Amino acid sequence: MLHTLLFLFFVLLVVFFIYDSIKPEYFPPGPRWLPLVGCLPRFWILRKKCGYIHEAIKELSDIYGPVLGLKLGKQKLIVISGHDLVKKVLLQEEFNGRPDGFFFRLRAFEKRRGVLFTDGPAWYEMRKFTMKHFRNFGLGQTTMINRVTVEAENLVKELQKQCKNGPILMHRVFDVAIINSLWIMFAGHGFEYGDKKMKDILDTVHTAFRVMDTMGGLVSQMPFLRFLIPELSGYNELVRIHEKFWAFIDEEITNHDMKLDINLPQDLIDTFLIEISRNKSADSIFNRENLLILCLDLFLAGSETTSNTLAWTFICLALYPEWITRLQKDLEKVVGRNRPPCMSDAPSLPRIEAFLAEVQRSHILAPFGIPHRATKDVTLGGYKIPKDTLVLLSYYSVAMDKDHWENPKEFRPQRFLDSNGQFSQKSAAIPFGQGKRRCLGEILARSTLFLFFTYVIHYFDFEISPVHGTPDPNGYDGFSISPKPYYLKLSLRSDLEN
């Protein structure tokens, strides 16, 4: 009897292994699948060789084509490469879902909460509510520009203090200013430079983007490992990170709840709390957990990307110093030296707009953006994409597509200038995505980038630190590509020293 049971178990195990290695009919081409792990071993080896996930994916796409099929552990996914195909998928309704794997629920109390990793009616209502009240509290209006301008002024003051002590560590210098521009809209206040609590949480943000990847990491691909090797699999680290985030935001919500005036909401959190008090149904999107994860989504998405974009922008200035003089001369011609830049100057500063656009093209912060999910069985390029398949869009391939960009690996801001020297926003550039999933903070991000950049180059000259050397043009891999620590020597421009 025992022998029979062992034999049956062995047969079932063999059948499972065979079944687990078979690709669905007409699934996109990719590496061979092994039982349990899929093509994860080959992917790991390739990632280690290339140094970055997006470079590993590029190698595979060069072999198997622009619609690449993978199975990493239990996770089936496809990767779309090339400008035209990525744009097509972005605008296709069937690909507008968000993943529902282990990692994506871990961050939201094992539920589907917030606005980044949800879809369907709940996501639509949450996004609609967020955008409506962001506009009420200044998004896209003069109020928002005024707030960003104040933060730009405070940033300059902080840099003036720091530059007196030698070269400045630049890769984190924009963090507080960026957070304040966003935080004031959904929490009603900002933070002081040097605030220890804010420094700790910002350190956690940077860590989070380093230890996570677009696909959710090993805990999404092989969730059972959290029971066997919770530390090595990264599970414990993810829990520690999210517990810090939850505690930080929960404290903010509690403070708002204690001071709430239902007749005079001051920010997005107040408005959401009022809706919670009015909506008691079990299926309402208005509950405290949803508010906490919404704040977490906005906090993470709004802080890391914009701060890193600015950090990369000044790396580019250091690597291509001829642009510093050009852009400062443009500012002097348009703005002069008797006032700071303002948002209305942007149309008259085409080379600055072109420089910022080229930074965003050449340094793709999130090479795959936020992952999508097929909401139903769909056909793409002759291949069948099963419902619930994870879909990654290679924004890196869009930025490097030779059919749309001449010599894409070269840093050439002039590619965004027309024959008359005016800024031309290329349709091939999609740094904020497209379609229904387009970044909801785009207006704030564009204004922040322009004002912070122009303020700093208006007030300061730059040199590469003789002690620390040239900034490393290669960043850290992760959910986003973050710059490595680097220093620049800043000096207040001579006509402003008094």
TrEMBL record:
The keyword Zinc-finger does not apply. Its cofactor is heme. One of its GO terms (cellular component) is cytoplasm. Coiled coil: none annotated. PROSITE patterns: CYTOCHROME_P450. Heme binds at C439. Pfam families: p450. GO terms for biological process: organic acid metabolic process; xenobiotic metabolic process. Residues 1-24 form the signal peptide. The keyword Repeat does not apply. InterPro entries: Cyt_P450, Cyt_P450_CS, Cyt_P450_E_grp-I, Cyt_P450_sf, Cytochrome_P450_fam2. GO terms for molecular function: heme binding; iron ion binding; oxidoreductase activity, acting on paired donors, with incorporation or reduction of molecular oxygen, reduced flavin or flavoprotein as one donor, and incorporation of one atom of oxygen; steroid hydroxylase activity. Keywords: Heme, Iron, Metal-binding, Monooxygenase, Oxidoreductase, Signal. Belongs to the cytochrome P450 family. PANTHER family: CYTOCHROME P450 15A1, CYTOCHROME P450 508A4-RELATED. This is Methyl farnesoate epoxidase. It comes from Cephus cinctus (Wheat stem sawfly). The lineage of its organism: Eukaryota, Metazoa, Ecdysozoa, Arthropoda, Hexapoda.
